[in-house]
Amino acid sequence: MEQQILLSELATDTQKGLSANPKFLLSKYFYDDAGSRIFQDIMNMPEYYPTDCEYEIFIHQKEEITRAFCDKNIGFNLIELGSGDGLKTKVLLQHLVLKAINFQYTPVDISVKANRELLESLKTEIPGLQVEAKTGDYLRKLKKLNGHPALRKIILFLGSNIGNFSDTEIGLFLNRISEFTNSGDKVLIGFDLKKSPKIIMDAYNDPHGHTRRFNLNHLARLNRELQANFDLDQFEQHTEYNPFTGHVKSFLVSKTEQTLYIEAIKHSFHFKQWEPIFMELSRKFDFETIQKQATQHDFTVLNNFTDSRNFFVDSLWEKK
Description:
Elements: H1 2-19, E1 23-24, H2 33-43, H3 49-69, E2 76-81, H4 87-98, E3 103-109, H5 112-125, E4 134-135, H6 138-145, E5 152-157, H7 167-180, E6 186-192, H8 197-204, H9 210-226, E7 235-242, E8 247-254, E9 258-262, E10 267-271, E11 276-283, H10 287-296, E12 299-306, E13 312-319
Parallel strand pairs: 1-11, 2-3, 2-5, 3-4, 5-6
Antiparallel strand pairs: 6-13, 7-8, 8-11, 9-10, 12-13
Helix pairs in contact: 2-9, 3-4
């Protein structure tokens, strides 16, 4: 049933996006099993700093983060939204288990493969961990998790995933988190900070071609799941960064005039030559904006854990 719901949403969102002017596709659909594998390649690039920066934060500040999580030894549910392979989170999980902290880990990810592999690795690497994975859209899953107001919650939203949201989407997401949490609950959110545009462009317009493959896989997914007939060779990728707004934008551009058909929705879509599809926003933040977002959504910023280069921050908030 869950897969049927996701497929229906994919079809609906695709029709809406390709019918719009300008055209767009939603970045949440990047992460099917194939997309998740390609993103692993992106994270392993030397130019892609966010993963290394956040990993450094967890390695060197896990004790401080653990102390900030714990409150009078009261147990909590550690809920991670978009958990992926759990590379960085495992550093914290191992430390929490080592310290005999009373908690349960609930990873939520849209990829069946990512969740399956995460559970298998956790059984081997952290055998004492209490874990219950959830597969699906994390905002949908939050509704089903919101039945235990007495159990304190700590939510992880790492990797600067929040940077993929527009201003409106950030507001909607943080409103949902605010509604889901109770006074004293905490949220740890990863924010990629503004920095040299060259460093950012090297990470998001990589010379290895992984980012291009990642974007084109979205079209390949439409071919696989919606019986579309995209010719991937007829699209090229374009990336741009605006240092004023902090927005990195990714596009796929049609190299030729063409008409494509999607069988699942019985609809054709016309592309002019060099017409773009907006694929993804990767926003960079400053501390003033982070503080403003927390305050607007009824949270207090408790601490900002940064890496040694101040490229990245995991910002810990508490619900008022």
